[in-house]
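In the lab's daily routine, each protein ends up as an entry in a very long ledger. A line of letters takes care of the sequence, but it says nothing directly about the fold. The three-dimensional part falls to structure tokens, numbers that each stand for a local backbone shape. The outcome of that step, for a single protein, is printed below.
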Amino acid sequence: MRVVTRQSRGRWALVAAGTVLLCGLPVMIGAWPVPASALSAAQLRARILRSAAVPYQGYAESSASLGLPSLPDVGDVTTLLDGTTDQYAWYRSARQWRADVLTTAGEKDTYRAGALGTFEWTYTTDTLTQIVGSQPVRLPRAADLLPPALAQRLVSYAGPGTRLASLPAERVAGVDAAGLRLTPAGRTSSISAVDVWADPRTGLPVEVEVFGREAAAPVLVSRFLDVSLSEPAVATVQPDLGPDAGYASVGEPDVTRILRGFGPPLPASLGGASRVPGPPGLPGIAAYGSGFSRFAVIPLPGRTGVEVLQAATSAGVSVQLGNVPAVVIETPLLTVLVAQPVAAPVYLLTGTVTATVLERAVGQLPEYR
């Protein structure tokens, strides 16, 4: 028989207590109070806007529920804008980064390799594809939803009338992050608020929440689950073609072909909003508004216009705007309106504005006056 002395029992008690302490350490750290930031809302916004030069590496998750219908000729972005996307990211600069999207079938990696351009590697085909050239517009990609990229874009959109307010600090992926809320002025935007948490020292955003006007919960959330504010190695962001991998070279999706425009010149103002400079090379389309109240007007070619109208009709609500039949699709964040003229291009209007703004804009198009 082995006799356990009081001293040995004490030692084992210490071991057990230490094990429990180690197991509970992450929970305890998460429960520690987060110190408030001394930065004002304006100061934090300025640091976020300057954070594009801050290197990082980490693992992020984004969840979107925009409720968009599937539209022709614009690629499969439904999963990206209506689902959950998990990705690893390594970022040295705006010209050198890598993002690996994890899927049920494997992964799909995107590289921005400086002067070499953009590459995509697909696990299922083991093919590295170089995307040659650039176009005025492109389809959304998963890297656009990483917290830094998403926050920097949204914060830069904020117009002069946008209200800034500080939010309580939060601990996100181990970062004691300062909070910022941006609230659009007026009632024309479909966005009610954008919340961003960022590292107060560097301004690097680590979490973003976007609220629709009628949504109690955010309709778009992107946050780091793990992040390090350290610079990844150059080799990590360079594509590496294995000996058995395939290689292809293609141009970016030809969205330009769809958006060239077929209607007369668009006016200087629509729906009470002034026209703003659009992407070069696309004179047939126009953007209007400022801040979070922006929308685009796109004349569509014949076949594409018919297909878009059919897709919109099956997902939206038919309305009559004077003598112009149209279809309106309202999602928690974006509003889409497709107008069907008698002898003119089909017009697609879409943006982060209310349906009222788009309906008023349709009535001011040259063909409908």
